[in-house]
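Protein modeling request. Please complete all fields; requests missing the sequence field cannot be processed.
Requester role: graduate student
Desired output: 3D structure, token encoding
Chains: 1
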Amino acid sequence: MLTLVFWLFALLLTIPNPDPIPSGTVVLRHFDSEVLKDTKTGVNPRRSISIYLPPGYEESGADYPVIYFLHNIMWDNERMFEDGVVQATFDRAIARGAIEPFILVAPSYTTPTVGSLYGNDATAGRWLDYTLQEVLPFIESNYRTRPGKENRGIAGEFLGGYGAFKLAMMHPDTFNAVYALHPVATGTGLIPMKDRPDWQLIHDAESFADLKSNVFSQVFTAMSQEFLPNPDRPPFYCDFIVERPDGELAQNYTNTTTLQARFLLDRQVANYADNLRSLSGIKFDWGRYDTNQDHVFSNHTFTRLLDELGIPHEAEEYTGGPFDRNWIEHGRVEHDMLPFFARHLSATPQSPAMPDPKQQSTVLLHHIDSEILQNTKTGLNPRRSVSIYLPPGYDTSETEYPVVYFLHGLFWDSERMFEDGVVQATLDAAIADNTIEPFILVAPNYSTPTVGSFFENSSTSGRWLDFTTQELIPYIDNTFRTLPTRESRGITGELMGGYGALKLAMRHPDLFGSVYALHPVGTGVGAIPVSSLADYQKIHSAGSFDDLDGDMPSQIFTAMAQAFLPNPDRPPFYADFMAEPEGDAYVPHLENRISLLSRFLLDRQVEAHAGNLRSLRAIKFDWGRYDTYQSHVYSNQNFTRKLDDLLIPHEAEEYTGGAFDQNLAPHGRVQTKMLPFFSRYLEFRD
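Delivered output (686 residues):
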């Protein structure tokens, strides 16, 4: 027995530990500011700066790009690095190649009040001048930074996100790109600004300490000091949007207009539109569950204003609050902000790698003769094609690979998906730059004689769920070198294919471990009642599906009825409908409507499958806010809230764009979101 223990101990000693991630260094520096001297608010001109230097900085002799990071009010740069999470996030991102080594600079914007609101007046501090005239020269004189705006980005969190956007907007000659994490003050919110503070408390106060009981009063006083300064009016040396001229509180409209014009970004962007258009990249995001919904509302409005002004940008709303998603592992900083700067800051020039002809990816077209899809009422061809992407090196290795199943949308098919080479090139690029390890992608053909599959088991239009789980997956696992476990099998899709992906993962967590749906539809009811969208007189008068040509809603709702209201004894469509003939009219049929919606819409099904969804390794879906059919936007917004109410962990993002245009664009959703998602949640080895 002792011999066995000895050998087990010896074996443990020989198992190599994984290589530790190289660690950067955080340096704290101080300098005496001339710009911030002699403010009325008593700002300490001795300022600290926290500087993150990447692994290898001391030995390399190289120059590095710089990201300037602006902290929020009621926070500071030193606490930002205290627990080691920020440094570990940067170290991890550099180690896995998400971004080249960089320097991050976090200056102190603390004040005797709540912190800088990034104004520029001598009363409360010339914070913009401090940043541009003192912080930047200090960093570039003391550290090996790459010269030029193309090597300089700026970011910030909350009020720091506001400041970052403002500095980039005003100084595109200094910064090349900006990323604002949940910025505030992008515009007015749901509640008028005048209704937030306790103005009686403010006007009675003799010092800032008297406001400690009311956060809004503190913030609005500091805001007034920066944007309504009055050096002759102690104790706060400012005017207010609500004054007390005769002992009674009254709104001062001149002050209100002045403060909003100087503070809120939406009042300023038109004047700086050309500056913003000249930036290499603009992105901001926000958590939909900020307890102050003014911030959510104003960011929604702000991204639309930028689009109206023709200012290219990215804007994402995500599941979470204003802070809780930023610095967690795989959070917004690591997987969104840093890759953004990797794209928009100049990289070290490298010779392009010459592809090895033996290491090229391959797209194969196979066919499956389905037993399950035979003899449908819609005349479906049971011989199904399947497009299979095999990664570089597949033919020359013995490796087994994880598999991602991709489900296409209506009016499309898997063969056309690969025709122009964009999909294959996107997958190749992601593997080449280590966004994801090599994997197999399988794109089955879900086209039909009508509009395509609705991913249901129907006696009329085909048992598509059974085809996928009982025929397709076994065929792929028996034909190719796959890792045939749920942990190594993901599923994704686009629009109706995204719906199908969510549905299959929800019903078969034994087969799929993770799911990413690109702009799914059918997640819930939309802004317009579904029964009002089709022309039921045309449907009931039609002798065949060809008679519905040119009327897409009627085509879609007929195929939907075949999937969810099948009636094999009712030609020509072998289905019942949400509106049925009654005399000379076509009226809503309540029972059919309830039945179709309960079988089709995902929000009607998730409660019954909540345990399955919680058992998945990961769930994510996204949608473009400019889908011309806004019901899809509305239903996805409600669906993510439904999942949260059911305590189903997931990620959900609303982004700038339409239903299709951002998915396969350069640096689009597939490359920067979907594939990194599967990189995190698929198992790539036994």
